[in-house]
């Protein structure tokens, strides 16, 4: 937590986080427009935030997009704030969050986790139908080539597809981009969301960044905000221990 507190101690870095909260997924140039500072200085501040895991970056073509990572802030809230004033602060926080999130017209969710594994094994866990069935409760079926269809299929033998989409980018074992939609909306591209998986190796671990963007509304964002941590925790357990979690994590009550 020392890196997090150090990063938050600087006013410029707090303003950069505010800018990303207002409009997540900005380039360096966009962030510099509202910060009276050289690009080099802004880059240095962003590096401190990224080292503290307060932001994550995703490349899209030649652009490098910056996203808030809420996990360290959530840990601060749980450890240093909620246990003292949980009921009152939870109510105030929910009110403030709804007011602030209402200001953005493109809800998105970013999650970063670190796994003791290799990029190849993480890629296999994301794309192998049998492995996804083991930790996700659905089989992700596709040939994973750009332009191909993919489907999130129930494992109860019914063949029911709960999510469908297209593979936008596929660069094994580093990057996978897919669209997501309800089967009834498969032909309605305006109702598709987009999920990007970035797999970055570092010595004996892998940093997995998941960006879910173009969500329909804040209710949908809340749903994916609860679902992704559960799924990715199960994936992490499977890769690191050979076993999924003893209970399905998405069934754990929120309170």
Q: What form results from the Cα inertia axes?
A: globular
Number of helices: 8
Helix content estimate = 40-55%
CATH topology of the largest domain: Alpha-D-Glucose-1,6-Bisphosphate, Chain A, domain 4
Q: What's the CATH architecture of the largest domain?
A: 2-Layer Sandwich
Q: Give the class-level CATH name of the largest domain.
A: Alpha Beta
- Total E-strand runs: 9
Which structural class best describes the helix and strand composition?
alpha+beta
Q: Kindly report how far apart the N and C termini lie.
A: 25 Å
Order of neighbouring strands in the sheet with most strands: 3-9-8-7-6-5-4
Biggest sheet: strands, sense, closure?
Answer: 7 strands, antiparallel
Family: Belongs to the AHA1 family.
Pfam families: AHSA1, HTH_20
GO molecular function: DNA-binding transcription factor activity
InterPro entries: ArsR-like_HTH (IPR011991), ASHA1/2-like_C (IPR013538), HTH_ArsR_DNA-bd_dom (IPR001845), START-like_dom_sf (IPR023393), WH-like_DNA-bd_sf (IPR036388), WH_DNA-bd_sf (IPR036390)
Blueprint of the fold:
Elements (H helix, E strand, L loop, with lengths): L1 H7 L2 H12 L5 H5 L6 H13 L3 E6 L2 E6 L2 H31 L7 E7 L3 H9 L1 H8 L1 E4 L7 E6 L6 E11 L3 E6 L12 E10 L2 E9 L4 H24 L14
Antiparallel strand pairs: 1-2, 3-9, 4-5, 5-6, 6-7, 7-8, 8-9
């Amino acid at each position: 937590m020392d890196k997090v507190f150090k990063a938050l101690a600087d006013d410029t870095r707090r303003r950069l986080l505010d800018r990303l909260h207002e409009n997540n997924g900005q380039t360096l140039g966009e962030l510099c427009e509202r910060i009276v500072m050289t690009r080099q200085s802004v880059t240095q501040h962003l590096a401190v935030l990224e080292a503290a895991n307060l932001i994550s970056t995703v490349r899209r073509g030649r652009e490098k997009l910056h996203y808030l990572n809420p996990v360290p802030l959530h840990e601060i809230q749980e450890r240093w704030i909620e246990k003292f004033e949980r009921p009152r602060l939870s109510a105030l926080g929910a009110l403030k969050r709804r007011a602030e999130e209402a200001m953005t017209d493109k809800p998105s969710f970013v999650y970063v986790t670190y796994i003791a594994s290799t990029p190849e094994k993480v890629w296999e866990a994301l794309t192998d139908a049998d492995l996804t069935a083991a930790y996700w409760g659905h089989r992700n079926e596709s040939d994973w080539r750009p332009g191909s269809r993919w489907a999130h299929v129930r494992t109860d033998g019914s063949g029911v597809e709960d999510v469908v989409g297209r593979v936008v980018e596929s660069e094994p074992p580093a990057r996978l981009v897919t669209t997501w939609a309800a089967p009834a909306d498969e032909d309605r591209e305006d109702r598709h969301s987009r999920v990007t998986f970035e797999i970055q190796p570092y010595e004996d671990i892998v940093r997995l960044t998941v960006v879910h963007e173009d969500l329909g509304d804040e209710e949908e964002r809340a749903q994916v905000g609860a679902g992704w941590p559960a799924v990715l925790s199960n994936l992490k357990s499977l890769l690191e221990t050979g076993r999924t979690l003893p209970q399905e994590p998405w069934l754990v009550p929120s309170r």
